[in-house]
């Protein structure tokens, strides 16, 4: 009887195994040969890892249920002694361990074979610190290392910028870079973009409007953009207005320049008055002659192009219209400008703006 029970037990076990999936049988007999994740898993690896650290990380992220089969696979592919590259990786459901190991190995470009690039954006930045903060959200470099590198005398010398001019190097766009891009690599990539943007045609336009350096055009564009951030049709009009003032030797008297001097203190303030304009600051165009020493914000390429192709006009003054359109009244006459300013302030009073 006991013998019969044992035989029946073996038969039952055999039937149970027959119902298991082939992959599950392999796993029972040989260990995990594929990843266990049932959907895509995106990994952001912030620093290079040893084989043991990588295997543990993959278990932690639900890609593997144990480290041993993966470590054996690395050894089989002669990768167990390697350091695996930081970066972004996407692991598909049921990825073979042979492919997984190969994907993490270092390719000819110095990055993981399966490493993916990430989107890098830095729109609406004002300072280098803002750039550092925005970029650190996209790549593994932290904001302090980015700011320190960008501001370092050796970096400024390498790219022939002063600290004040340095924001002109950065042209906002949607870029793709490896997640493990460091500060030096990021700035080098931006320098390449800068060189590609400043074609001979743009340099000729720069000279035609009476400016000497790309950073000057970017500085003027930053003022234009700070004056008008929404209505692109006004950019070439405002650009010519300030070029007219420069040509006549007039102070630019742009409110955003002295507002820049106050940092965040004037955020939300719509009624800018004399005490705000009287601040002593190298960027305050009510105090200084000519352009500020550098941009007051990071400028989109299309605003720079508007400066390089300004409208034809003789305007010297501008004032916000007394409504919510976001548009401006332009004039050559200081008398008309005073009237426009009075109308605008009456409107502010009526609307209860401070």
TrEMBL record:
GO biological process, one term: peptidoglycan biosynthetic process
A GO MF term: lytic endotransglycosylase activity
EC number: 4.2.2.29
Keyword annotations: Cell membrane, Cell wall biogenesis/degradation, Lyase, Membrane, Transmembrane, Transmembrane helix
Recorded catalytic activity of this chain's protein: a peptidoglycan chain = a peptidoglycan chain with N-acetyl-1,6-anhydromuramyl-[peptide] at the reducing end + a peptidoglycan chain with N-acetylglucosamine at the non-reducing end
Recorded GO CC terms: plasma membrane
Site, as annotated: Important for catalytic activity: 227
Family statement drawn from the similarity comment of this UniProt entry: Belongs to the transglycosylase MltG family.
Role: Functions as a peptidoglycan terminase that cleaves nascent peptidoglycan strands endolytically to terminate their elongation.
UniProt name for this protein: Endolytic murein transglycosylase
